[in-house]
Amino acid sequence: MGSVVLNGATSGATTITPTDAVTVSLTLPSTGGTLQTSGAGFTTNGVAYATSTSALATGSALQFDGANLGLGVTPSAWGGLGAVLQINTGGTFLGASGSNSTMILGSNAYYNGSSYVFKTSSSPAALYQQNAGTHAWSYSGAATAGNTFNFTQAMTLDNSGNLLVGITTQVSTGRLGVQKTSGNHNTIEAKQQDAGGYNFYSNAYPNGYYYHMTFTEQDTQRGSITSNGTSVLYNTSSDYRLKENVTPITNGLSLIAQMNPVNFDWIHNKKTDHGFLAHEFQSLIPNYVVGDKDGLDANGNPIYQQIDNSGVIPFLVASIKELNTLVTTQAQTITAMQSTITALQAKVGA
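-> C-alpha cells emitted (350 positions)
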C-alpha cells in the first residue's frame, strides 16, 4: 500500500498511509501552504501545474482529453489520426499516427475520423505530412467553419529525392516533375526581379502553339521555343511593332565576302567541326555574339564567347538578292549582245 509524505517548511514530516476511505485535514507547519483535496477549482480535462506560489492549479491554457492535447484551446473531436497537439483556436495542429509512422502538421482544420473539417471561415487550410521518408504538402481554399472538405496535394518530395509539383507520381524518370492540369497560365516560371525582370516560363496557349519555353526581358517577350504539332520552332521576337528606322540591307554581298568560315577540332574531345571564330563573327555581326574576346571572370577563369549563327541569314538573303540583280542584269546584257551578233551575222551573210 502506498503512502504520501508531506515535508514542512521548517522541519519534520507527516506521513499518511490510507487504510480506509477517509477525509484527512492537514495544517502545514511554519509558512503554511495549499493542499487540494477535491476536484473543486480544477478545469475539466485541464492539465494540473504548479503556480508561482507552488499551488496546484489548472486552467484553459492546457487541456488533455485523454488522447489529444490542446494548447490555448479545447481539443476538437479528433478521430483516426492518433495523438494530436492542437494550438489556439485557429486550428493549427501537430499529429502523429503510430500505426503508420505518419507525422502531420496542419492549420485551420481537424479530422473527425472520416473527413477534415474547417475550424474557421474565410481562411484556407493547409497540411504537411511525412510518412516513410515521403513529404507531401496539401491545401484547400477557404470555406465555412464546420464544413467537411478534402485536401488537394500540391507538392511531393518522395523518398527517392524526386520533387513533384502538381502531380503525385513521376511523369517519366526526371528528378523534377511539374504539371498544370488546366488553364493557360505558366507551368514553370523563373524571374530575376532585381536585374530588370529577365525570366523564362513554360505554358500552352489555345492558338495551335505550345510554348515550351518563353524568354522575356522587362516583361517583353524576346524569344521562345514552341511546337505546333509537327515541328519545333526556336523563335526570336521580330514583330514590326517592336522596330523603327527600318531600311534595306545593301551590303550583304560585301559582308559575306569578309566572313571566314573555317574547319577546326574541339580541344576537349578532338572532334572535327566547322563554323566561325566568335570574335571574327562579332566584328561583322556584333549582336549575335555573347562575351568579349579573351574575356576573364574575377578569378581569372575564361568566359568563353558564344555565337548564334542565325545572325548571318539576313545578309545571306541580301547577298542572294544582290547576286540575283547582278545575274539578271548580266542576262539582259548577254541577250542584247546576242541580238546584236545575230543582226551582224545576218548582214555579213547577205
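The radius of gyration is 41 Å.
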